[in-house]
Specification:
Elements lengths: L2 E5 L2 E3 L5 E8 L7 E7 L6 E6 L6 E3 L7 E6 L4 E6 L8 E8 L5 E3 L3 E5 L2
Parallel strand pairs: 2-11
Antiparallel strand pairs: 1-3, 3-8, 4-5, 4-9, 5-6, 7-8, 9-10, 9-11
């Protein structure tokens, strides 16, 4: 059974930091690229960060470059998103996604991040 379980969301003040985790099971994690997406209220889901299966390449949305860092631990079947210098506009539900070269994709259920004073 495929599972992607996000954790680490919560309420944080502007300028603060959070670290999201996504623990996966049910498929060969090391063969999948991973990404984080987010969806703010009333907006479409958007790609935030991406990392290749081996971790050698990462990409970020312009809005988070220099503030967010995606990483993965293939031994722990976990992908992370370190979020620093958080802004109110980062408030959203954050989703973990796994994608294979064959077009197979899996989604987690999301974790809520609220940036507010």
């Amino acid at each position: 059974q495929v599972q992607l379980v996000e954790s680490g969301g919560g309420l944080v003040q502007p300028g603060g930091s959070l670290r999201l985790s996504c623990a996966v099971s049910g498929f060969t994690f090391s063969r999948y690229s991973m990404s984080w997406h987010r969806q703010a209220p009333g907006k479409e889901r958007e790609l935030v960060a991406f990392i290749t299966s081996g971790g050698g390449t990462t990409n970020y949305a312009d809005s988070v470059k220099g503030r967010f860092t995606i990483s993965r631990d293939n031994a722990k079947n976990t992908v992370y998103l370190q979020m620093n210098s958080l802004k109110p506009e980062d408030t959203a539900v954050y989703y973990c996604n796994a994608g294979s070269a064959y077009g197979i994709t899996y989604w987690g259920k999301g974790t809520l991040v609220t940036v507010s004073s």
